[in-house]
Amino acid sequence: MNATIKAAAITLLVATPLQAQNFGDGQMGLGVGVSTLGVTGDLSYQLDPTLTVRMLAGAASISRSGTLDEDNTTADYRATLRIGGIGPVVDYHPFENGWRLSGGALLSNYRVTARFTGDIEIGDDNPTTYEDADVRARLRTKNSVMPKLALGYSGSNLFGSPLGLSFDAGVLYTGGIRTRITDRSDVALPEEDLNTLRRDIDDAIGNVRFLPYVSAGLRMNF
Fold first, then answer.
1. Residues 6+ away with beta carbon under 8 Å from 154
2. Which of the chain's termini has less CB crowding within 10 Å, N or C?
3. DSSP state letters, 19-83
C-alpha cells in the first residue's frame, strides 16, 4: 500500500512537467478566488521556470452579535471582523511545474471592532452592574506586516481553456493580538473594571500568534 502511494506521488511530481508548459505559458498571470484574507486577487509575473512574483490582496468583513460570558464579565456586544491584507509573495517552483512554496509579507488589515452596550456586569464574587453602558473595544494584530508561508499549486489548461485551478495552505504570523478599550458611557466605568473587561476579551480571543492561510481560486496566464 505504501509503495503504491509513493509511486503515485512520484509519478505526480515527475509527470507534472507535462503541466510545466501550462505553468510557463505566459509571463504574466491573473488570479481570483477566496481565502482567509477574504475575496482575493493577485497579479503575477514569472521571472524564470522556478520563480514567480505576485502582488496579493484580499478583504472581507463579517458582523455578529453575542454575549461575552467570561469569569469576571457578562456583557452583550455587536462586533465586526475585518480581514484582509496586501503585499508581495514569491513562489518557488522546485520541479518547474505548478507545485510551489510561497513566502511573502502582507500589510495586515485584520481587526475587530466591538461595542458593548446595555447592562455590563463586571466582577467575580460581588459583581457590579453598569446600566446603559457603552464601551468600545478594538483588537488588531500586533504585526502590521504579517509574514506568510504556504505550500500550493497553480495549474492551467482547465478543460482546454486558458484557466487553471490554484490552491494554497499555510500560516500567517500575527505576533499576537493587541486590545484597546474606550469607555463612552454616561457614567464612566472605573479603570480597574475596564482592565478586567479587556483581560476577559483577551481570554475569550486567546493568544493568537499564528493564523491559518488557505486559498482556492482560478487563474489565467497570458
1. 23, 29, 31, 91, 98, 100, 164, 166, 219
2. N
3. HHHHHTS-SEEEEEEEETTEEEEEEEEEEETTEEEEEEEEEEEEEEEEEEE-SSEEEEEEEEEEE
Exposed / middle / buried, residue 194 (Cβ in 10 Å: 0-12, 13-18, 19+):
middle
Residue 31 to residue 40: CA distance in whole angstroms? 8
Question: pLDDT tens for residues 132-162?
Answer: 999 999 999 999 999 999 999 998 878 778 8
pLDDT tens-digit series, residues 15-48: 334 343 344 445 799 999 999 999 999 999 999 9
- Helix, strand or coil for residue 1? coil
